[in-house]
Amino acid sequence: MADFSTFLPDSAFALDVEAKDWREAIKLAGKGLVDAGFTTDDYTNQMIETVEKLGPYMVITPGLALAHSRPSDAVLHTGLSWVRLATPVEFGNKANDPVSLVIGLAGRDENEHLEVMSAIAKALMDQKKTAQLAAAQSPAEIRAILES
Amino acid sequence: MDILCVCGMGIGTSVLLKMNVEQAAADLGMDVNVTTSDAGSAKGTANMNDLVLTSEELAPELEGTSTPVVAITNFMDMDEIKAALEEHA
């Protein structure tokens, strides 16, 4: 079982916050990663550059963006951040916009984050869990849903 | 069946897609070997696979490969992934 208290600590959350556009939403996800000690500010810029260069492909399912860049010096530890937006924003992904949840991902290498990603994939595939995640009131509650 | 999942960096969305493709294949009773790659190096390795799965935005980057490329819109939609696997099985 993935240890979410390490990979997704309280400081990595921003719940029901406002972002005026996708850049600001990714900045919030980057801030969560920085606050949790996972990345430096450079990584936030790298995540934004990735979308600028490759398009909004990170919006992988309706309402969800998995913001990330590649492993680099800007990644200090593997971890996630969780930004739930009060007002959904457009990323420019026709099929899956607007986005209400941005998960920031920082991976030290290609393997360390697999267990956490697997737990998240399972939760996102489960409609009951996605509804619970949208309604959850605290980081602890969200972690408990992901771990269940 | 060898399947390559491609995303921009090869560590985020393609990894999620790989997990879901493996699950879909297991449900269908298909024997698959799934690898992941970033869009840049995918052109070189695509031909060694039977099927390439990626997102709508990245599919154009893979033009010119002889392997069928299927764009998945919803990476969490098992039915969409299963349909892609069944079509190219």
From TrEMBL, chain A:
GO MF annotations, alphabetized: kinase activity
Gene Ontology biological process: phosphoenolpyruvate-dependent sugar phosphotransferase system
Main location: cytoplasm
Keywords recorded for this protein, A-Z: Cytoplasm, Kinase, Phosphoprotein, Phosphotransferase system, Transferase, Transport
Entry GO terms, CC: cytoplasm
Domain PTS EIIA type-2 as annotated: residue spans: 6-148
SUPFAM superfamilies, sorted: Phoshotransferase/anion transport protein (SSF55804)
Keyword Iron attached: no
A Pfam match: PTS_EIIA_2
Location(s) in or outside the cell: Cytoplasm
Function: The phosphoenolpyruvate-dependent sugar phosphotransferase system (sugar PTS), a major carbohydrate active transport system, catalyzes the phosphorylation of incoming sugar substrates concomitantly with their translocation across the cell membrane. The enzyme II UlaABC PTS system is involved in ascorbate transport.
Protein name, entry field: Ascorbate-specific PTS system EIIA component
From TrEMBL, chain B:
Listed InterPro entries: PTS_EIIB-like_sf, PTS_EIIB_2, PTS_EIIB_2/3
Keywords: Transferase
GO MF term list: protein-N(PI)-phosphohistidine-sugar phosphotransferase activity
Record-linked Pfam families: PTS_IIB (PF02302)
PTS EIIB type-2 domain span: 1-89
GO BP terms, alphabetized: phosphoenolpyruvate-dependent sugar phosphotransferase system
Protein name per UniProt: PTS ascorbate transporter subunit IIB
Source organism: Bifidobacterium dolichotidis
Taxonomy of the source species: Bacteria, Bacillati, Actinomycetota, Actinomycetes, Bifidobacteriales
